[in-house]
Amino acid sequence: MDSYTLQNGRIIASSASSNVSSLTVSKGKIGETSANSKFSINLGNASYVYPALINIHDHLRGNYLPRVGPKKDSYYLNWLPWDNDLKSSATYSERSNLSVENLYFLSAYKNLFSGVTTVNDHFPHELNNDLLPKLPIRAFKEYTLAHECSSFDLKWGEGIEIEHRRAKRNNWPFITHLEEGFDPESQDGVGVLERLGCLDDHCLLIHCIGFSDADIAKVAKAGASISWCPASNTFMFNVTCKIRKMLKAGINIGIGTDSTHTGSINLLEEMRFARQIYRDMYGEDLNAKTIFSMVTLNPAKAFRMEKRLGTLEPGKLADILVAKARLDDPYENLAQLPMEDIELLVMEGRPLYGELRFLSLLGDSLPAGYSTIMVAGREMFVVGNPGALYAEVRKKVGFAKVLDYLPFEPL
User: What pLDDT, in 10s, does the model give residues 150-207?
Assistant: First the structure.
């Protein structure tokens, strides 16, 4: 359906705007507040309407379980020994039964079922260019990258300087892990970028657990963004970045999941973990509005897509998350949202996933390319066929594998 209105819901357009009770979608974009369409759905004053979530950092080949980490009572010095452990693990061996396409679709559904419509797959373009357009969510291709800024990185891309120049030329983000460890070379990541003339507002820097106070000041001055992945950091290193100092410095920060090999099962769980680790570290709460911004507008800014995504303002893409309103505070409601409370997920005006009461947005009957699943006792429509994918995974590994980010059982 080209044009429709969601009525009698509380519209959380941004962290500064939540006073509207209806939202109009027209030709894939958010319409003017005063606009009305011929077709509307009444949310019955029981739902919040948020911008769909944005996962600032994921590796779409890596969303398999269980996690792989350091031996008991030990932690890694940098990412390299973890990579060695991963590739010699039972998890990796079991994962090898699946095709790369299986893994990408599992990752897409991991994100979709947590309210995410936009994700960055931190892998080189030659490894994902053919796969990303096939996915049911937006895994965008407008980025350049390095793996890390060290001599022992994985040599992704054509080199930091070339990739950074390309990012500037195209107005894209330049994305790299940085200071993911505590050896002297890892902790010189900001210095490497500085010496190459590549530290600026195009940079999206992932993890940053080795940052000194001076590094934080330099990154803030440069206008770079940071991807915070606290669950992965804590699991691998028993520490995360100096998040409170980074926030006080005014750095643009988004929350990312990393892959499930080390991180949370999805972005909703990562948001909860972020609040818990912040409480543990500082003895105070991380404001729910701040969390909201970290999964909506902040990553849109980091991706240089803030004119298209991140809020429900007229003219932006109609990426929408409708969820049960269980708490009076809409930001707390999102910060505590379970997968089962998602009612509808829309990308560019097109429903991807939702309760059957929203089927009218797809023409009243299940169209080709959609299927149904049971989630917490509700029949839900979903783009594609994740039930068949889940069944295929179980067949390939030879047992009833449980992947916690899929909130259903295949038939």
Answer: 999 999 999 999 999 999 999 999 999 999 999 999 999 999 999 999 999 999 999 9
CB atoms within 10 A of CB 359: 18
Determine phi and psi for 95, rounding to 5 degrees: -60, -30
- Please state whether beta strands 20-26 and 53-58 pair in parallel, antiparallel, or not at all (unpaired): unpaired
Quote the distance between the C-alpha of residue 126 and its chain's center.
21
86 vs 13: CA distance, rounded Å:
41
**Considering the entire predicted model, what is its pTM?**
0.97
Question: How far apart are the C-alpha atoms of 395 and 316, rounded to whole Å?
Answer: 42
Rg of the chain in Å (alpha carbons): 21
Instruction: Give dist(CA 371, CA 385) in Å, integer.
Output: 6
What's the gap between Cα 269 and its chain centre? 11
227 is written with which tokens? Answer: 């991807």
**Per-residue model confidence as pLDDT tens digits over 48-70:** 999 999 999 999 999 999 999 99
pLDDT in tens, 209-265: 999 999 999 999 999 999 999 999 999 999 999 999 999 999 999 999 999 999 999
Measured between alpha carbons, how far is residue 167 from residues 150, 163, 175, 270 in Å?
20, 6, 9, 28
